[in-house]
């Protein structure tokens, strides 16, 4: 479980997050949605500790993450896996080296044991016979899958995904979404996904939090979201012709 | 890092050694000056200035831009964030090995540059007939001050430290995209070069006064 309590974040004189309170449950895919510039990436980066919050607490199960001393925070980070928007694979390392990297850093496993784990993770994300390829030799979807394999190599308790299907075709995007959902259930992780893709909301949104101008504007699940009377949320989800047609066909209010 | 710079350092050193020899010869065409002075001048120029300062400026252009763009690219593609998320001190992990490698390896480049520069001077001097082989070799051995080598090696070690830290700083603090990475790479080279020149002055005053 991850709980965010009364978070405020300011850059200079611009307040980006306003008193955010939200709880993300274990074993669920929690989606944070919102327009570009709404503050969802700042929220995610604050939760994972890449940005320091001005006020408020970020609670990971039994720990107040933002108040932990450096060493304990570092230890807790080993339970975190993150999938970045651009995959963030190490350019000069092969697929195998990328997935093995966390194991090299934080385990005392033998090379054979690490290799077994790497192959297991790669198999889990349906990547085979690509161990010695460089990230540049892979497609966008494959890069995302390798990044997921790296994120799960240490059996994380918490999984974060920043716009996991941006830049992917719809079919690959759904495949990545489903993979994240399956991994969340299989590893029983607390998963938080930043997205503005409504397909993801429909497919895997166990819980959906809508961020609007730095405020938590709405929360619910992927059923409730289509029946919302929240004006800003409605404008967001029915912004395209496709979703408007969906709304008309299903006679949604 | 340093190994890939061996070619450019060798190429520059051989021609600079050759040019110093020829310029000294053409500017000292006086029967009162002994010919071995040409070898002595080439040696001292290489030891005191070229093989440390000029090599450092070459390295600033080559490895400085390389480090800034490599780390800058890692920053804008979130690879550094990925390291931080894993609980790894990204600055220490990425920058320290570069500093250590440069500080350890750059003195070897300087020694190589000294020998190749002297060889270039000998080749140019004997091939053009401005000095005989014996006189040149006598000149490069004459009144040799071993401290000059220490001075040159210490200087290049400090310059290597400056190049790697300044370039890493510029790369590490890039914000934006590929355009900013290019700009940071340019800034790294310019700032490294300026600091090399300033420190060259300070170190010369401190070590040779």
Structural overview:
The complex is a heterodimer of chains A (253) and B (209). Chain A contains nine helices and ten strands. Chain A is an alpha/beta fold and 253 residues long. In chain A, the strands form two sheets. In chain A, strands 6-7-8-3-9-10 form a six-stranded mixed sheet, with helices on both faces. In chain A, strand 4 (55-60) and strand 5 form a beta hairpin. In chain A, helix 3 (95-106) crosses helix 4, helix 5 (140-152) packs parallel to helix 6 and helix 6 (170-187) packs parallel to helix 7. By secondary structure, chain B is mainly alpha-helical. In chain B, helix 2 (36-76) packs antiparallel against helix 7 (178-208). At the A-B interface, helix 2 and helix 3 of A face helix 3 of B.
Keywords:
heterodimer; A: 253 residues; alpha/beta; six-stranded mixed β-sheet; four-stranded antiparallel β-sheet; 9 helices; 38% helix; 24% strand; globular; B: 209 residues; mainly alpha; 7 helices; 0% strand; elongated
Residue share in β-strands of chain B: under 5%
**Total count of helical runs of at least 4 residues of chain A:** 9
Q: How is the biggest beta sheet of chain B arranged?
A: none
The gross shape of chain B turns out to be: elongated
Biggest protein-protein contact in the assembly: A-B, 23 and 12 residues
Name the helix and strand elements of chain B from N-terminus to C-terminus, one letter apiece: HHHHHHH
Structure summary, number of beta strands of chain A:
10
Q: Find the structural class of chain B using helix and strand composition.
A: mainly alpha
Q: Kindly state the mean pLDDT of chain A as a whole number?
A: 91
- Percent of residues in helices of chain B comes to over 70%
Largest sheet of chain A: 6 strands, mixed
Q: What proportion of the residues of chain A is helical, as a percent range? A: 25-40%
* Distance between the first and last residues' Cα of chain A: 33 Å
């Amino acid at each position: 479980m991850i709980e965010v309590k009364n978070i405020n974040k300011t850059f200079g004189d611009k307040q980006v997050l306003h008193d955010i309170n939200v709880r993300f449950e274990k074993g669920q895919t929690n989606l944070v949605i919102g327009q570009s510039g709404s503050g969802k990436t700042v929220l995610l980066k604050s939760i994972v500790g890449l940005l320091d919050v001005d006020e408020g607490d970020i609670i990971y199960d039994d720990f107040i993450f933002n108040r932990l001393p450096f060493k304990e925070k570092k230890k807790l980070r080993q339970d975190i896996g993150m999938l970045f928007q651009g995959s963030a694979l190490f350019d000069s390392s092969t697929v195998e080296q990328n997935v093995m990297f966390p194991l090299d850093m934080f385990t005392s496993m033998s090379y054979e044991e690490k290799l077994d784990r790497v192959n297991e993770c790669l198999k889990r994300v349906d990547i085979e016979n690509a161990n010695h390829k460089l990230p540049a030799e892979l497609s966008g979807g494959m890069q995302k899958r390798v990044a997921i394999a790296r994120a799960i190599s240490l059996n994380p308790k918490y999984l974060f995904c920043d716009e996991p299907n941006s830049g992917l075709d719809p079919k690959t995007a759904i495949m990545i979404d489903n993979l994240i959902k399956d991994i969340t259930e299989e590893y029983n992780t607390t998963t938080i996904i930043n997205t503005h893709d409504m397909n993801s909301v429909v497919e895997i949104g166990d819980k959906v939090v809508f961020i609007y101008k730095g405020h938590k504007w709405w929360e619910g699940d992927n059923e409730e979201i289509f029946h919302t009377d929240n004006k800003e949320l409605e404008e967001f989800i029915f912004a395209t012709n496709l979703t408007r047609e969906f709304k008309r066909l299903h006679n949604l209010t | 890092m340093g190994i890939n710079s061996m070619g450019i350092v060798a190429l520059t050193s051989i021609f600079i050694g050759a040019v110093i020899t020829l310029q000294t010869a053409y500017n000292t065409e006086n029967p009162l000056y002994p010919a071995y002075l040409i070898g002595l001048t080439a040696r001292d120029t290489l030891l005191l200035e070229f093989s440390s300062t000029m090599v450092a400026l070459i390295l600033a252009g080559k490895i400085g831009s390389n480090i800034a763009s490599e780390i800058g690219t890692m920053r804008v593609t979130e690879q550094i964030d990925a390291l931080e998320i894993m609980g790894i001190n990204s600055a220490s992990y990425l920058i320290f090995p570069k500093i250590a490698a440069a500080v350890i390896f750059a003195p070897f480049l300087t020694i190589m540059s000294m020998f190749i520069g002297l060889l270039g001077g000998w080749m140019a001097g004997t091939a053009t007939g401005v000095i005989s082989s014996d006189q040149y070799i006598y000149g490069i051995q004459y009144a040799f001050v071993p401290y000059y080598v220490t001075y040159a090696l210490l200087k290049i070690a400090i310059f290597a430290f400056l190049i790697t830290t300044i370039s890493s700083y510029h790369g590490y603090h890039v914000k934006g995209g590929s355009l900013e990475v290019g700009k940071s790479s340019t800034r790294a080279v310019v700032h490294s070069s300026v600091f090399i020149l300033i420190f060259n002055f300070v170190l010369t005053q401190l070590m040779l006064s």
